[in-house]
Structure formats: structure tokens, C-alpha cells
């Protein structure tokens, strides 16, 4: 199995940086298992974590994740948008 360095930072502060060799399950196993649950498409990214460096993130923070030589990506934490509809039995404004 190939070895890669993975890193994750929050607002420029490194929270995780380790070799993929230390993962409990190797990358091919993770891809194979996840593919049994839902379809993976080209460009999809699977993020996993480790106990070290785990912490709360809040709206507005930027997460940067990378695997050396393969991928670099950043995204902002945002408030989850409500669904475009509300099921009648879940509508808080509904009065029976």
C-alpha cells in the first residue's frame, strides 16, 4: 500500500498531520466499504479523522485538508440550510 501524508487545519492551525500508514483501515478498504453504502463518483473526497486534534468547529471557520501529492481543498463551515420543504408532522407552526 502506498503511503501519503494527510493534514487538516482549521483557520491555518494544524490539527492533524499523519501518515496514511497509521490508519486503522487502508484507503482501498475504506473506498470498497463506503461503495457498498452509496455511490462514489469521480472527484468525491472521503474525510476520516483521528482522535488526536479533534475539536469543535464553528460557523465561519475554514477547514483545509490535504493528502500530499494528491489533493488540497478548503471549505468554510456554514450554518446548515433547512430543507426546501417541511414535512407536515414536523412543522412547528402547525396546530392540530
What does this structure look like?
This protein has a four-stranded antiparallel β-sheet with strand order 2-1-3-4, with no helix packed on it. With 96 residues, the chain is mainly beta. The chain is extended. The chain has one helix and four strands, in the order ββαββ. The protein has one helix at residues 27-35; strands at 5-10, 13-19, 62-67, 71-76. The mean pLDDT is 84. Helices cover 9% and strands 26% of the residues.
Structure summarized in a few sentences:
This protein is mainly β and 96 residues long. It contains 1 helix and 4 strands. The mean pLDDT is 84.
Helix and strand layout, with pairings?
Layout: E1 5-10, E2 13-19, H1 27-35, E3 62-67, E4 71-76
Antiparallel strand pairs: 1-2, 1-3, 3-4
Oligomer: single chain
Unreliable segments of 5+ consecutive residues: none
Q: Enumerate the strands of the largest sheet in spatial order, edge to edge or round the barrel.
A: 2-1-3-4
The secondary-structure element order is EEHEE
> Helix proportion of residues, in percent?
under 10%
Radius of gyration: 18 Å
What does the largest sheet look like? 4 strands, antiparallel
Task: Quote the beta fraction.
Answer: 25-35%
Structural class: mainly beta
Amino acid at each position: 500500500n502506498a503511503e501519503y501524508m494527510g493534514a487538516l487545519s482549521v483557520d491555518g492551525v494544524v490539527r492533524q498531520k499523519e501518515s496514511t500508514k497509521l490508519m486503522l483501515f487502508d484507503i482501498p478498504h475504506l473506498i470498497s466499504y463506503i461503495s457498498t453504502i452509496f455511490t462514489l463518483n469521480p472527484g468525491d473526497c472521503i474525510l476520516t479523522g483521528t482522535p488526536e486534534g479533534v475539536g469543535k468547529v464553528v460557523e465561519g471557520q475554514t477547514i483545509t485538508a490535504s493528502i500530499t501529492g494528491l489533493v488540497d481543498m478548503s471549505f468554510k463551515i456554514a450554518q446548515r440550510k433547512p430543507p426546501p420543504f417541511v414535512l407536515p408532522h414536523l412543522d412547528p407552526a402547525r396546530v392540530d
